[in-house]
Amino acid sequence: MPKSTARVAGGGALIAATATPLVAATATAYDPPPPAKPMPAQPAELATGVPAAEVTQYLLTRDDPRPDLRLFIWQPTSPPPAAGYPVIYMLDGDTVFESLTDTAASVQDSRRPGAVIVGIGYDIDASLRQAARSYDYTPPSPGADSPVGAPRDPDAVGKTLPGGGADRFLDTLETRIKPFVAAHYPIDANDQTLYGHSYGGLFALHVLLTQPNAFTRYVAASPSFWWNGRYLLQTIARASISANGAARRLTIMVGHDVAPPERPDNTKAVTQQLSQRSDWVVDMVEFPGLTHADMLSASIAGALHDR
């Protein structure tokens, strides 16, 4: 079958009618590239996978210098519920689907999720993705263009990659990606999850704190609380409690925490602080001994298993 990709164009959700690879009118099955390094295995008890042949890709262009996005979408093969399938939007979509398709190929009894999965990745070389996600996933804040800190030393003088584009990225998600998914897949608009790992976890928490009604459930795996002088902790401290709408559900996932218990960005301490809110249902899921990198595959499986 010839490879082609559907384009999500313009201000809404449209399918372009060209025949050029990567900009074609029909979608293509997922053809995962060889990984730069082996993906950590998902926990056997949670192993969740989808066949690569059932994954469809779409190209979403952006009319600014930011790199174009690539969507990876999988729909369950069982008939949808009356209200539609739940949908889970997963950042770092390229890596997410690498984990899901590898698991399906290697573990015969890997679970099939009961939700539409929308992986949001980038249409650029893997070596450039870190800079793109560092901008898109981190909140606007003073000094975000040259944020202070590093994972192993939040008080480091050294600078990390420019950030601050989270609100622009959320706008793209809300005004272009969500409408496209709703128009082409039978989903339940009242059962939508946002998942992110590392900077993606930071993004999920930023959305929950600033636009809580954007999703019904949030999953933040190994969130980068250290980013830009622990800016998110300031947002948590001043965020108001919403009196409107249903309670939002937040799941924080953590492995080996790089922040010791006495530091304010320790995951358990932050989770306990968030748990005090009456408008959220907050859970913490631990994966003892897993490193920050190992947590990616583990949290993918955990997020999809806990539906």
Description:
- The chain has a single domain (6-305), classed as Rossmann fold (3-Layer(aba) Sandwich).
- With 307 residues, the protein is an alpha/beta fold.
- The strands form 2 sheets. Strands 1, 2, 5, 6, 7, 8, 9, 10, 11, 12 and 13 form an 11-stranded mixed sheet that branches. It has a two-stranded antiparallel sheet with strand order 3-4.
- Strand 11, helix 5 and strand 12 (248-254) form a beta-alpha-beta unit.
- The radius of gyration is 19 Å and the shape is globular.
- It has helices at 93-106, 129-136, 166-184, 199-210, 227-238, 267-274, 294-305; strands spanning 6-9, 14-15, 19-20, 23-24, 28-29, 55-60, 69-74, 85-91, 116-122, 187-197, 217-221, 248-254, 280-286.
Helix-strand category: alpha/beta
**Helix count, per DSSP?**
7
SS strand fraction: 15-25%
Distance between the termini: 34 Å
What assembly state would you assign to the polypeptide chains in this entry? single chain
Q: How many domains in all?
A: 1
CATH T-level topology: Rossmann fold
**Molecular shape:** globular
Task: Please mark out the parts with pLDDT under 50 across 5 or more consecutive residues, or reply none.
Answer: 9-26
Task: Supply the CATH superfamily name.
Answer: Alpha/Beta hydrolase fold, catalytic domain
Major sheet: size, sense and barrel closure? 11 strands, mixed
Q: Write down how many β-strands occur, each being a DSSP E stretch of 2 or more residues.
A: 13
- Radius of gyration over C-alpha positions, nearest whole angstrom: 19 Å
CATH architecture level-2 label: 3-Layer(aba) Sandwich
Secondary-structure element sequence? EEEEEEEEHEHHEHEHEHEH
What value does the average pLDDT take? Answer: 86
Helical content band: 25-40%
By CATH reckoning, the class would read Alpha Beta
